[in-house]
Amino acid sequence: MGHNLFRERMAFVGDLPWHNLGKEVSPNVNSDTMLQEAGLGWKVRKVPATGARRVPKRRGGSEYERCFVTRDLVDKEKEPPVLGIVSPRYEVLQNHEAFSFFEPFLEAGHARYETAGALGNGERVWVQVRLGEPLTVAEGDIVNRFILLANSHDGRGALTLRFTPVRVVCQNTLNLAAEGGEHVVNVRHSRHMRDRLASEQVVFLLRLVEQTFARAAEQFALLARTAATKERRDRFLTAVLPPTKADKTAGGTPRWWQAVDDALADTRATPRATRQSMWGLYNAITRVEDYRETREASSDARLDRIWFGRGAELKIKALAQAVALCDA
Predict the structure, then answer these.
(1) 241, 245, 246, 247: CA torsion to nearest 10
(2) Model confidence over 130-142: pLDDT tens digits?
(3) Whole-angstrom Cα distance, residue 215 to residue 151?
(4) Which H or E run contains 226?
């Protein structure tokens, strides 16, 4: 299967990832080793764009009106690629600086590295860590707690930190929203970003992580003990996967509703104990979204969708709708 992993490399702890590529590392790996094994030991530079002119700064001096963001040479590359075009205010955050965000949590034993890598020419870098003990939703049905830090080098996005727990029985990613939004940390590439990372690093993040996963545990338990009646099921699927024009023309069961039914019938993905619950129905949608066929040929298109794109948004919406229907 095709892929768009940077240099066909990433580092991982435990089982081989979805695309069968990567370098396995020790569960106790440190930041420096994880960085190198993931092929991310390079730096990013901000240089004047071709033809850019200098413009006066408010406090004296001058700066270029447009800049390129480029990556250092890697292996036998002839010239570094341009990752993006940015404004003079854009502040580069190096890969080792992004990784250092997790150091206090690793040293305190709150977390350990899980995966790290980059996409394309290195324009998007991620590092994922596993947190403490898993959540037990029902007997034999547990959810591992993960958070994901992603940094872009192309000027098109901020540094973000997201909740990406994984249900063990089916390896579905259950994206969560923190109070007030999707991202735990959303830091623009400005000259103040390092100060914000430092101030939010330990006390704030630990509190927010515990609050978010505590709320998730309550929501998951509520879903697991709430029956997925026909009325709830139809309202839930209509809200999250509304029938298309083609579905209405064809009649019968909408295409994606049938895919959800198939996921519920798969005993490898849906344990019998929760199959008739809203927890089972919600997870059937997350499984369909994770493993559905798309137009994109690359396997990391799936990663991009479920971590950063429409797949993550759909799952957050699905959880909110499922919880709301538990009182219906």
Answers:
(1) 50
(2) 998 899 998 888 9
(3) 27
(4) none
